[in-house]
Amino acid sequence: AQDSCSHRCGELLATCSCQVTCQSLGICCPDYKEFCLQISPYSGSLMGGKDFLIENTALNASSVLTCRFKQKIKTSGYVAKDGKAHCISPLLYETGFIPFEVSTDDGLTFPYSGTWLSVHHSKVSDGEKCTLVNVTKWQYYGTPNTDGNLTLTWTHQALAAAHINIEVWGYQETGDSYSENWLAEWKYLYTLAREIPNTGKFSFVPVPAKGNYSTWDFGILRITPSSYSDGQSNIPSVWSSEHALAWHLGKDFRNDPNAWATAKCIEWDRKEEKLPNFLEEIIDCPCTLAQARADTGRFHTDYGCDIEKGSVCTYHPGAVHCVRAIQASPQYAAGQQCCYDSTGTQILTHDSTGGSTPDRGHDWGSPPFMKPPRIPGFSHWLYDVISFYYCCLWSDNCHFYMKKRPSSDCRTYRPPRAASAFGDPHFLTFDGLNFTFKGQGEYTLVESDLTSLRVQGRTQQAHFPNGTGTQATGLSAVAMQENNSDVIEVRYSDSNLEVLLNQKAVSFSEQRWMDLKGLFLHSTADQNITVMFSSGSGVEIRGNGGFLTLTVLLPEKFMNHTQGLFGVMNGNTEDEYTFKNKTTMSVHASPQQLFEFGANWAVENGTSLFTYDTEFLLNNFFYGEKHNASFLPVFFPYEDPADPLVKEMVLLCDSDPFCRFDVLTTRSLQVGSSTRLSHQNHKLLVENLKPVISCGWLGHPTNGRKNGTNYLLGSTISFICNQDYELTGSKERICQTMGAWSGDTPSC
């Protein structure tokens, strides 16, 4: 008898497989689809309450379903009339893929299993939430000129109920800051409206909440079917966005919002005094907008101020673009934000309210989540957002906030180094050497002993436009891992990019951003894939004319810690061609010798990160040689003046040697064009990542003012005294090559 996948999903059994690769290999156990669950939708807010369908298993309609997440959180499931099973997602204090199991015997055994993707509450589509119509009005209600009705709307089909309740929940963190007993809690407060018709709309005039409830100033609304009891956990729900609860605050707030908020702001300021200083450990900002957008391993667009979406920067007047540091700081899990003006210069809070403000709590939370200050979104709201309402929005005390959240300048920022591979593979190393290596096989592009980072590339034979094989190869797959992180592989499959997470294909149909183990994964709408590892190293992959284009970005700490085809990153090109046994070859080596160097970096089966899930891959790369020694490429393609293609090639490529090479070896102008674009992009990236010298912020003298807010090399700041004051010290100071200002500190 064949083995069963009951309780065994993800395992390779004696007679058959319950691993994700079993389907394409045709070796699944007969009941694989029954026990290893596919679900739809596959993601939802970490707040829970979302109904998802189990697609591949038909169950007995009389079964009592229990769904269990992380082996401990139980939610109720049900079997619909069509025999399809459903689960309700739970409230979680973390994001990422969460394992779940299903029981059909009232929780005795849990033989079925799958994974659910828990998502940051603000990354969930608007249609899944109920909408606070004119959200500003809700959050300013009771302040001058803000009163009247509030309206809540929702998609009424989202809840299968004729009548619904609307509840108010509050978020709090209890215990001592940065200690073991610091805990996060979402708490049901009271029911705002009971047994109202599920029409998709509710309007009301808010009144101050009764008793203690009015002290809760940060929370959320939940709509549930009326058949459930008040505050019951993990039931079908539609949540609103999290928001400042101005609309339900007590009479003391409504009578004098400014005084109430001023008192809160001063109280917040005193609390901050006692907390550890997180500013010392957050990464410095990139000096320029170009650097900030190029350092994709460490910084990502702040969606609240995005140049690609028209620079709507409500909280940062004067900015055209902001980025956030991807990784939270090591000890305090704090976040960094950096904003830039239309000249590409950083805006600092010392000079303008539009400056960037760092965060005591990183907005995205940070692994292992679960406890403050690492709760995605909500820890940040508590320390950095509601306090902004107290000090800056509900009262006029923004100087308190800016003093505790000053922008970081860029004096200690060091840009990463970039290496790229593209086309009929051309390699541009971290130290700036370039060469062509056209082996066929699987190779180590870069590995580092610093964080056990490994990036491996697979090359396959390119084909002429008529379908026959060429004497050229191109990158067809890239796999990567750092320390014991998840393994990501990106490969070409029928002119689309396919992304594998631990051998399983990932869909970006619901979520373009994923918080995974040891890394973040992002896909743009046009299929550019970015992997951001926790060390700050980044890998970017895009499909381009039948081959992959790959860029690896490594922070400065990787200096002298890399090897592989991308060379030894140390600022010296002489040792780029270093073999596994640490011997080196001259940088003037011939293409034939380079072929030997490349072959030396072939991967071994024991250390391969690739997924071999088809007969073709098994035969050609797993059982076959890792470097196909019998495949001999063209080392010097011949330019025949009589060849009509050569004329078009010259027009297309101009003097780009890689573009010319690829047109000749593949007979395709499209490949040449892709290669040229990739080469230009790499040159632009290297240009944008050039180090920039900053001398740091300069203030104005007491009883005087200054002209200029640019503190980078060569910029000048001049000083003027107010009337009846006289200037001593330097009238103007210039930022010099050593990173110091000329002259002396002026005073009036």
TrEMBL record:
Keywords: Disulfide bond, Membrane, Sushi, Transmembrane, Transmembrane helix
Coiled-coil regions listed in the entry: none
Disulfide bond entries: C721-C748
Main localisation: membrane
Assigned GO CC terms: membrane
Sushi domain: residues covered: 693-748
PANTHER family linked: MUCIN 4-RELATED (PTHR13802), SUSHI DOMAIN-CONTAINING PROTEIN 2 (PTHR13802:SF63)
Protein name in UniProt: SUSD2 protein
Originating organism: Nyctibius grandis
